[in-house]
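Regression test case RT-17, inverse folding.

Input:
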C-alpha cells in the first residue's frame, strides 16, 4: 500500500491545485463547498458551466485513456486530483455519472462507433448522464427488473417501464437503462444495456421529494421510448451492468473522504465556537469520527493498491458499509454539536443549514447504493465464503 507520492506526483498536485485556485473564482466563487450531500439542488446552471470550465482546462475524465480523450493519469494522480478538488471546495460534480460510470463502461464494452458518438459530450461537459437501474420492485437486486425492451419492425428497441431513485434525471441528457429483452427470461438472464435520450416523447421525469425538501433524484417513466443504442448484445445486460458497478468503487473515494473531512472540520469549528468542545462525550465522538476517517482512508488506499483489472478484492467489499455508517453518525454528531435549537426552523419553506441538510440526507446513506443489510450479505458470501442467504418463504 502506497502512503506517499513521487516528486512527479507532487508536481501534478501543484498543477491541479494552482488551476483550481486560479479558476474557482469570479462567477464560480459562490460554488465553493456547494452541491454536496443534501445540497445537490443548488446552482445547477452554474455547476453545468463549471463542468465545461473543467473540460476547457483538460480536467474532466483525467483517468480515461489518452486514446479516448482523457489524460491517462495513474491511480496516484487520480487520487491527487480528487483530493485537491475536494480540498479546494470545488462544487459537487453534475457530470460524475457520465465521467465515472457511463464513460468507463462505454470504453470497456461499447463499439468504436458508439464510443465516438457518446464519449466527446462527456469529455466536454456538455452532455450529462443518469443511471436507470433501480425499479419499484428491483432495488438492490437487478434480477427483478421488469422494464421491457422490444424491437419494432424497423429494428428499433422500444422501452416501457419505470425506474426510480434516478439521481439528476431532471438535469440529464442521457440515461443508461437495464431492461428485459426476453420476456420469458428470469433473474439475471435476458437483460439488455440501453442508451436512451432523455429529450424525447415517452420519457417522463417526476421528482421525489426528500427529507431535506429538495428533489435530487426522481422516478422516470418510459412509455414507448426509443433507445438510441444497445451496448453489446441482447442478454449482455447483466454482465455490463456489473462491470459498471465495478467502476463505482474507484479513486473518487479519496475525494469523497476529503469532502467528509471538510464536513468534520466545520463541525469541529462550531464545537469550539459554541463551547460544545468542552463536553467530554462530544470530544470523544469527534475523536472517534477523526479516527474512523483515517481508517477509511487507509482501507481505500489498500483497496486501490490491490486493484487489478478493476477487481479490488475483499477490501472493496467493506468500503460502502464503512463510509455509509460513518457518515450517518457524522450527521448525528453535527446535530448534537449544534444543540437542541438545530432541530427547529422558524417557518416554511424551512430553509436548512448545510449541517441540518447533512443530518437529514445521511439517513439515506445506509440505504442507497445497496443497503447495509445487503452489504453485509455481500461481505459474508463473497468475502468470507459463507453459505448464501436462504431464499423463499420461511
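Golden output:
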Amino acid at each position: 500500500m502506497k502512503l506517499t507520492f513521487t516528486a512527479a506526483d507532487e508536481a501534478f498536485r501543484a498543477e491541479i491545485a494552482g488551476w483550481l485556485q486560479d479558476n474557482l473564482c469570479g462567477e464560480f466563487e459562490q460554488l465553493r463547498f456547494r452541491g454536496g450531500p443534501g445540497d445537490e439542488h443548488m446552482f445547477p446552471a452554474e455547476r453545468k458551466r463549471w463542468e465545461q470550465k473543467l473540460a476547457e482546462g483538460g480536467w474532466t475524465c483525467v483517468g480515461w485513456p489518452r486514446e479516448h480523450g482523457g489524460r491517462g493519469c495513474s491511480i496516484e494522480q487520480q487520487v491527487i486530483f480528487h483530493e485537491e478538488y475536494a480540498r479546494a471546495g470545488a462544487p459537487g460534480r453534475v457530470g460524475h455519472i457520465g465521467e465515472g460510470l457511463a464513460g468507463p463502461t462505454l470504453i470497456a464494452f461499447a463499439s468504436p462507433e458508439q464510443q465516438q458518438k457518446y464519449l466527446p459530450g462527456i469529455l466536454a461537459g456538455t452532455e450529462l448522464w443518469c443511471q436507470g437501474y433501480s425499479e419499484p420492485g428491483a432495488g438492490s437486486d437487478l434480477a427483478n427488473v421488469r422494464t421491457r425492451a422490444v424491437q419494432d419492425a424497423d429494428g428499433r428497441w422500444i422501452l416501457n417501464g419505470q425506474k426510480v431513485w434516478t439521481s439528476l434525471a431532471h438535469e440529464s441528457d442521457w440515461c443508461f437503462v437495464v431492461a428485459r429483452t426476453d420476456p420469458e427470461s428470469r433473474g439475471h438472464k435476458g437483460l439488455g444495456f440501453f442508451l436512451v435520450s432523455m429529450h424525447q416523447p415517452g420519457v417522463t421525469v417526476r421528482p421525489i421529494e426528500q427529507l431535506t425538501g429538495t428533489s435530487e433524484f426522481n422516478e422516470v417513466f418510459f412509455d414507448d421510448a426509443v433507445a438510441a443504442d444497445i451496448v453489446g448484445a441482447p442478454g449482455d445486460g447483466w454482465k455490463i451492468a456489473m462491470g459498471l458497478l465495478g467502476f463505482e468503487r474507484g479513486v473518487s473515494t479519496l475525494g469523497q473522504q476529503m469532502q467528509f473531512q471538510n464536513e468534520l472540520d466545520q463541525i469541529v469549528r462550531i464545537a469550539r465556537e459554541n463551547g460544545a468542545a468542552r463536553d467530554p462525550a462530544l470530544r470523544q465522538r469527534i475523536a472517534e469520527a477523526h479516527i474512523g476517517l483515517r481508517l477509511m482512508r487507509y482501507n481505500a488506499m489498500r483497496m486501490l493498491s490491490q486493484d487489478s483489472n478493476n477487481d479490488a478484492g475483499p477490501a472493496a467489499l467493506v468500503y460502502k458499509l464503512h463510509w455509509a455508517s460513518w457518515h450517518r453518525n457524522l450527521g448525528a454528531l453535527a446535530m448534537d454539536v449544534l444543540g437542541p435549537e438545530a432541530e427547529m426552523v422558524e417557518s416554511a419553506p424551512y430553509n436548512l443549514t448545510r449541517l441540518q441538510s447533512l443530518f437529514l440526507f445521511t439517513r439515506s446513506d445506509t440505504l442507497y447504493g445497496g443497503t447495509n443489510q445487503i452489504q453485509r450479505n455481500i461481505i459474508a458470501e463473497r468475502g468470507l465464503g459463507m453459505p448464501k442467504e436462504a431464499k423463499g418463504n420461511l
